[in-house]
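so im writing up the methods section and need the Arsenate reductase ArsC record in one place, dumping it here so i stop losing it
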Amino acid sequence: MSEKIYNVLFICTGNSARSILSEGLMNHLGQGRFRAYSAGSHPTGVVNPLALAALARHGMDTAGFRSKSWDEFSQDGAPSLDFVFTVCDKAAGEMCPVWPGQPMTAHWGVPDPAACEGTDAQKQQAINDATIALKRRIELFLSLPLPKLDTVALQKAVRDIGKS
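--- predicted struct ---
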């Protein structure tokens, strides 16, 4: 019997940096056990080039990433989601669509590197900080014994990761 592949959606408002980083990191680190997606409540339509560069530095192919609306994941034919994580405070406070599959949700807020104003070095540092924070949270999530946890324990664990 093959192991279940979990579908994970990462949401931020613009779907330009944090959720894109999360999608790439989860797909890379999840080694086929997870299929990650990203979306925004108000997508910018543009992926932050510093986010793509950060993914490339971690050995990931950056082709195919795009800024898209979360509406794509609430329509017929959308993947059935197991987990939905908001990675920005603004998106966490918005009324989300009804997701197919009744996924488990949690908030993993990270400061928005795309909002950083300053020198190129400061912008790069903001992307690096967000990438490191998201990578740590994803690694903690991937270390959970998902099939062994009951719903209550799993919900607590994914919420606690967002507080780390």
